[in-house]
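@channel sequence for tomorrow's demo:
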Amino acid sequence: MPARALILAGALGAGGCAAQPAGPELADVPPPPPQGPDHHPQDRGWALVWADEFDGDVLDPERWEHEESCWGGGNEEHQCYTARTDNVQVVNGQLRLIAKAERFTGPDRPHEHQMDGERSRDYTSGKVRTRGLADWRYGRFAARMKLPGGQGVWPAFWMMPANDAYGSWPLSGEIDILEAINLGAACEECEGGRENRIHGALHYGALPPDNDHHVRAARPPGGENPQDGFHVYAVEWGEGRIQWFVDDRLYLRIEAEDWFSAAEEAAGRPYAPFDQAFYLMFNLAVGGRWPEGENEGGVDPSAFPAEALVDWVRVHQCETDPETGRACMEETDAPGPHDPPD
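structure tokens (generated this afternoon):
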């Protein structure tokens, strides 16, 4: 069984919460992000079409919606996502997602599932997305982020299909631009003996249990642990190709021959399911099958509260090749999904 925060006794109503034992201290207000390169490729034809620099003091409702749900994301996660400023803030020029140990009751499913009911969890956190507000087919999608560490801590920057043209997950695909699990936890195969890797992933195929995916781990250039500073995480996505970057390092390229959709609607469409519009998301999950099965195992309550910080997020599309996006994409050699790890 995973390690879980102790629940303090007390009756809770809908949306109620009870305090948990204290973990690491977070600053009331994080310092502004330090200046740093954006690692954007120059003179390649990428044109900025959408961005959020998080310069205000509230989340922009014309760009983002909160997800409010406690269902665990299909991954057996332990958080309720809320719209409270306890969990989602825009402060000092950055988006701040905060995961906290506290008993909370909220809606079981996000509103688009059209399912009633509530659920209680031992943690709260934040998840924001452009669903219904902005989506794109092809482009360069990048964010400058500082990631939290701790066993059971799972930040992500990712994309889901706007319309599920080929059916439910993963028939219509999923693009994980950045995921990290358990940063700083014990890791036998990691340099220095501590988890220091980020991951890019692609989900596709048939309905579970016959779904499939590719995933590859990487480290920032120079070997810094991602929890120790800001780095730029990006994908370039064009017709029949998706490739992943950390700062200026291209660490994974996947071609259409290495993905598919088993949906009937995908027949005769060689780039399906990654030929439709997708929207963006940031979230900070607590636990789940993947992080709890790695490193030290389970969820360490002493890792909370934890925060993920986003300096900016930017979307570029290929001005010289808007139909396929391929003309603007990096063409240097890159590892593929079947290559051995670095």
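heads up for whoever presents: The CA atoms of residues 30 and 92 lie 7 Å apart.
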